[in-house]
């Protein structure tokens, strides 16, 4: 419910009260958002606060440079996957397709298999993602959009950005020059969830890219019955530890693809690697690459 509404410097400002109890919110987890879950749809510059005055979200239209966005989308779209019939089904609620860029705080099953067979311990508690390791030129083309998102975060929530940056700068496992460790690129609809793996008291920051035309895919925070129509080039800062999800995408054209590019801090990276340096992280990555090359050669020999 809207408790207060005003305008400041052309920005719509809302203070909202909850329409759902915590128990009702919990019951929504894992279900899909619909247009019946919100009364307020934001389509222009807006700041939204909860009943206590804490930031729920800040939304700005067309603030990410088009050239930066287009280059990043071109760099990652093949990695995420084309908008195939199976992906179109995912938008209707039959799955989630996401890719993780930057650094991550867990090793995958294939990594652990390699470590077991090579009889070695993992070289570090965190790792660069496959995209960074295998597609460094594409990752370099993606970095400008991460910096553009970081600049918007610094502009709209400077106190929180400064705090998050200080935390991130205490580990070598980070996207240097930003307040983030990790980027998720999502090409499908998500159920209601909280980003439980994110650093507590931090914010997720995102923009959207697309090829082709679509409507829908509104991001909904159901407890406050508010949604955002985040379109290509828009910027959204939000408290991702509050329950949120997306409505279905509608009227997707042939070959259309919508990508949300979400920048954040992984709690596990901070917990496991605080006090490390960039040099230590780079050395660990070189050790991993050398080990991977040895393992690949061994596997080739076995065949």
Written overview of the protein:
Helices cover 37% and strands 24% of the residues. It is α+β, with helices and mostly antiparallel strands and 303 residues long. The protein has one domain (2-302): Double-stranded beta-helix, CATH 3.60.130. The strands form three sheets. It has a ten-stranded mixed beta sheet. It is globular, with a radius of gyration of 20 Å. The N and C termini lie far apart (64 Å). Mean pLDDT is 91; it is low at 82-94.
Q: Order of strands across the widest beta sheet?
A: 1-2-4-5-13-9-16-8-6-7
* Strand residues, percent: 15-25%
User: What is the terminal separation in angstroms?
Assistant: 64 Å
Number of strands: 16
Question: Describe the biggest sheet?
Answer: 10 strands, mixed
User: What's the number of domains?
Assistant: 1
Give the CATH architecture. 4-Layer Sandwich
CATH topology: the name is Double-stranded beta-helix
Number of helices: 9
Overall pLDDT, averaged? 91
Q: Structural class, from helix and strand content?
A: alpha+beta
Element-by-element helix/strand order? EEHEEEHHEHEHHHEEEEEEEEEHH
The whole-angstrom Rg is 20 Å
Q: Could you state the oligomeric state of the chains shown? A: single chain
Which runs of at least 5 residues are low in confidence (pLDDT < 50)?
82-94
Could you give a short description of this structure?
The chain has 303 residues and is of the alpha+beta class. It has 9 helices and 16 strands. The strands form 3 sheets. A 10-stranded mixed beta sheet has the order 1-2-4-5-13-9-16-8-6-7. Strands 3-12-11-14 form a 4-stranded mixed beta sheet, with no helix packed on it.
């Amino acid at each position: 419910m809207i408790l207060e509404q005003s305008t400041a410097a052309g920005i719509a400002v809302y203070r909202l009260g909850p329409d759902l109890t915590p128990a009702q919110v919990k019951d929504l987890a894992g279900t899909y958002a619909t247009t019946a879950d919100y009364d307020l749809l934001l389509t222009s510059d807006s700041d939204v606060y909860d009943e206590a005055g804490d930031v729920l979200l800040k939304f700005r239209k067309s603030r990410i440079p088009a050239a930066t966005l287009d280059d990043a989308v071109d760099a990652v779209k093949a990695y995420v996957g084309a908008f195939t019939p199976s992906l179109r089904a995912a938008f209707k609620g039959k799955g989630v397709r996401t890719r993780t860029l930057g650094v991550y705080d867990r090793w995958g099953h294939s990594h652990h298999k390699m470590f077991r067979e090579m009889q070695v311990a993992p070289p570090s508690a965190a790792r660069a993602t496959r995209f960074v390791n295998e597609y460094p030129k594409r990752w370099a083309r993606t970095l400008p959009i991460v910096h553009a998102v970081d600049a918007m975060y610094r502009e709209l929530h400077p106190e929180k950005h400064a705090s998050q940056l200080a935390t991130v700068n205490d580990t070598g496992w980070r996207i240097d020059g930003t307040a983030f460790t990790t980027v998720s690129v999502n090409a499908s609809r998500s159920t209601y969830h909280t980003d439980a793996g994110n650093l507590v008291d931090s914010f997720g920051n995102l923009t959207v890219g697309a090829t082709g035309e679509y409507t829908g895919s509104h991001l909904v925070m159901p407890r406050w019955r508010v949604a955002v129509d985040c379109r290509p080039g828009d910027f959204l800062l939000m408290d991702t530890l509050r329950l949120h999800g997306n409505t279905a995408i509608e009227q997707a054209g042939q070959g259309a693809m919508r990508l949300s590019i979400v920048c954040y801090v992984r709690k596990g990276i901070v917990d496991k690697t605080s006090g490390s340096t960039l040099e230590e992280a780079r050395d660990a990555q070189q050790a991993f690459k050398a080990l991977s090359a040895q393992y690949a050669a061994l596997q080739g020999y076995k065949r």
